[in-house]
Write a structure and sequence with these properties.
Blueprint: H1 2-43, E1 61-62, E2 74-78, E3 82-90, E4 98-104, E5 116-119, E6 130-137, E7 143-153, E8 157-160, E9 162-165, E10 171-181
Parallel strand pairs: 2-10
Antiparallel strand pairs: 1-3, 3-6, 4-5, 4-7, 7-10, 8-9
Length: about 200
């Protein structure tokens, strides 16, 4: 009886050891599958998109290459003649309209002029492009004059009877030189712009 007990006890111990090892391997295999599955699940999670932020406002940019009349040509007009100024403009406006002023002999001070154009707010990707267009009736005295087109955002203007700029960085400027000639038969002296080649 003791011999049988001695014989069967090691056998049962080995079987129990095999069962234990097998169970351990099965447990490790299950654990690795669970870990792999959780890694795959984490890799497939789609994050929420970042919150939308409004594009920042940029100063207006004038396309002077396509301006009309040509920027580097002198313009010659009789008094009470007309000149049409057009320039493409681009800017990121964040909902703030652009406003353009045609100014005669502008010295950088306050703005007072009847020649104004407004362009609705847009973005740098606008298609079709936005165009500033102002017709000027040449009502200045004969001689050489600097005509400036100043463009800024409406919110950059303070209205104290006459408009003034809050931030001079939020400005685009185009400049033309115009020789205003006296009307026919006038004896007024003419002071043309230096080196004027003339553009009619």
């Amino acid at each position: 009886m003791r011999r049988i007990d001695r014989f069967t006890t090691p056998l049962s111990e080995r079987a129990a050891l095999r069962r234990c090892i097998s169970g351990l391997f099965h447990g490790l295999a299950r654990l690795s599958l669970v870990l792999a599955g959780s890694g795959m699940t984490a890799g497939c999670i789609i994050e929420d998109p970042p919150p939308y932020s409004q594009p920042k406002k940029t100063p207006p940019r004038l396309d002077l290459v396509r301006a009309a009349p040509v920027i580097d040509h002198f313009i010659v007009r009789q008094r009470m003649g007309r000149v049409s100024f057009t320039v493409p403009v681009a800017s990121e406006d964040a909902g703030d309209d652009l406003i353009a002023f045609l100014l005669l002999d502008y010295d950088g001070g306050l703005i007072a002029t009847p020649y104004v154009d407004e362009v609705g707010a847009g973005t740098l990707d606008d298609d079709p492009e936005r165009i500033i267009s102002i017709d000027w009736t040449v009502d200045s005295v004969p001689g050489c004059h600097r005509v400036s087109l100043l463009v800024t955002h409406r919110e950059n203007l303070s209205f104290d009877g006459i408009r003034a700029l809050e931030d001079e960085r939020d400005v685009a400027l185009a400049v033309w030189w115009v020789t205003v000639t006296p009307p026919p038969g006038s004896t007024d002296p003419l002071m043309p712009c230096p080196m004027a080649t003339g553009e009619n």
